[in-house]
Amino acid sequence: xxxxxxxxxxxxxxxxxxxxxxxxxxxxxxxxxxxxxxxxxxxxxxxxxxxxxxxxxxxxxxxxxxxxxxxxxxxxxxxxxxxxxxxxxxxxxxxxxxxxxxxxxxxxxxxxxxxxxxxxxxxxxxxxxxxxxxxxxxxxxxxxxxxxxxxxxxxxxxxxxxxxxxxxxxxxxxxxxxxxxxxxxxxxxxxxxxxxxxxxxxxxxxxxxxxxxxxxxxxxxxxxxxxxxxxxxxxxxxxxxxxxxxxxxxxxxxxxxxxxxxxxxxxxxxxxxxxxxxxxxxxxxxxxxxxxxxxxxxxxxxxxxxxxxxxxxxxxxxxxxxxxxxxxxxxxxxxxxxxxxxxx
Length: 344
Description:
Layout: E1 3-9, H1 13-22, E2 33-35, E3 38-42, E4 54-58, E5 80-82, E6 85-88, H2 93-105, E7 112-116, E8 129-133, E9 140-145, E10 148-153, H3 164-171, E11 179-182, H4 191-196, E12 200-205, H5 208-220, E13 227-231, H6 234-239, E14 243-245, E15 251-253, E16 261-266, H7 276-282, E17 283-296, H8 302-312, E18 317-330, E19 333-343
Parallel strand pairs: 6-7, 11-12, 11-16, 12-13, 16-17
Antiparallel strand pairs: 1-3, 1-4, 2-3, 5-6, 7-8, 9-10, 14-15, 17-19, 18-19
């Protein structure tokens, strides 16, 4: 049976395999195959594959030695992995338990199964979970993504593995010596890879637990010397109405970041427009803004672009360099990003 595969030249195969494995996109139920001078790497989500790769349908061999959850239940299964935890979204208790048992019994390297028990809620963007399998610390795990490790407690912070490819797309644009500012940093999935590429980075978040994990992740990935983690409302941080503590324990006065940033990430898609004045205040003489938004499919980019221009012009020339759909968010709604260059 044909399955979606990334097709690459043999000499590029190992690099492609490593990139796809780091993003947890490789389909372990099928084998990687050489054919007709090409390497075919099966993938679980063709939509999430970076644009640099070609995705084709290919009759890849089925791995006979691994038992997967779908083989152990009589219904269609859906789950996602964060570290050694599997996330499911089942309203039916009996079906949820059966799926959890199947995941644990399968060949997946998973020890914890969590069922979404609420929507993301509140300013801290957390949700409730039902623990279907796992111990008392079941919501804490370590997620690996494109060579970085992220410790995270899903009950205390917001984290989405679905954005791995998008984060990698942005991180590849970062140059050594840049100054990068993530306005809603969470546990650091943008901040840490930016720092690994040699940028001086600042991450701000309202969630104190997320900031603690950001500091831990900076140490875990060996980039603590290039990461400043600040708990608070980014508007207060930039205006100078609060004090902050760096990840290395040094006290510093917030507000020193006006005109500081070469790159700014605004991944708060439901309300990023409310923070655009702060983003403009952060921008140096030239800065790239990564603005995430959720809009109707009829005009997914227009509202964000108009909001950015209203906040930045005439002090800055505004050039939209990329209009990109990250994923489908809901029926007729798209999660999109605008990469915008601001030039004073």
